[in-house]
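Exercise: predict the structure of this protein bound to FE2/S2 (inorganic) cluster.
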Amino acid sequence: MPTVVIDNLQSKSIHCEDKRESLLDILLSGTDWMHACGGKGRCTTCKAKILKGREHLSPLTRPEEQYVKLNKLREDERLTCQTFISGDVTVEVPKETQLPHLNYSK
Ligand code: FES
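Solution:
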């Protein structure tokens, strides 16, 4: 099963137990991760910067395409609640969605 590494959170590795899980669900199984709208694609607080493994991500969803057009989601970012993975991925938590009780390296 694929592994997700969070580069700026002590390179924490989280193993995907079920390919039907969203990237957000995988992340939440191993750490806290902001997700203000509850995974409905209506905010951008769950976004991750994708450092490696873009080829293992599902295509952009309609909400993500809208946020890209509005410049609220950059080319190298994905909404984790909208994304499914098929292989190993390395992500980074963007500065604006970092949680105050976790210790990020950048
Ligand atoms: S949790 Fe709001 S868009 Fe993903």
